[in-house]
Amino acid sequence: MTLTILRIALTTLLCQTFLVQASALPQQQLIPGGLAVLELPANFSGEARFNNQPLMIIRPGPQQPALALAGIPLSQKPGPATVQLGDQPHTLNIQPHAYPEQRLTVQKKHVNPDPQQLARIREEMQRMLQVYKSFSPAPDFQAMIWPLHGRESSAFGLRRFFNGEERNPHSGLDIAAPTGTPIVAPAAGTVVLTDEFFFNGNSVFIDHGQGLISMLCHLHSIDVKEGSELQAGDVIGTVGATGRATGPHLHWTVSLNNARIDPRLLLATDQPHSPAVAQP
């Protein structure tokens, strides 16, 4: 009886391990804000590019083919799109996707900034864009973890209206939690930018390598410095409501090859949380 129970337990553990490993692989979703997962030929040694940006290449295992990961921008139009795999073009068929709307009321300056604020915003956008376009070496791919457990208050991709005026789609996901709740790094990487930004408030940018960047913003406190080397789970700061925020929450953006994508596509596992609501 004991041996039978042991065998059942071992079988269950092996099945659970397989499921975790399977779920850890990136998920393809060929929509704006989604992800293309492309199998590469054996012994591929060239460069893969999409929208003139180099792509992340991962090797899941010794008996598995290498994969190129192409983030699809939220601005990508549905229809054919070309990925360059070495000297071979590959066509993606991007499907249309209707994201829901979200309407928020914020301070007037966060909808119609004055000229001085606009100058600041442009300068900050250039600094952030430089990070998003960067491409550095990376160790073997590891699926991301949630940087914060809490109620998802705004989903990725929402069409956003501030004080009745339409603005850019929601390029990350929001998780509501009390002010001061610790936030952790979703994957190993290097802190490449920290600052207090006009829209994003206190923010931390982490370079995970090969064009994969996390931005975590609206923080109450920042507990890391530029140049800090992080492991997944290291505390980087605490939940706040700085910048354009209607309450304490974390906004988490994931950018791959300078395309903001749904972070869920790179997560190892999902988390239980309340249904999304209109405001954090």
UniProtKB/TrEMBL annotation:
Gene3D superfamilies: Glucose Permease (Domain IIA) (2.70.70.10), Peptidoglycan hydrolase domains (2.60.40.1590). The keyword tRNA processing does not apply. Keywords: Signal. Residues 169-263 form the M23ase beta-sheet core domain. Residues 31-86 form the Peptidase family M23 N-terminal domain. One of its GO terms (molecular function) is metalloendopeptidase activity. Residues 1-22 form the signal peptide. PANTHER family: M23 FAMILY METALLOPEPTIDASE (PTHR21666:SF285), PEPTIDASE-RELATED (PTHR21666). This is Peptidoglycan DD-metalloendopeptidase family protein.
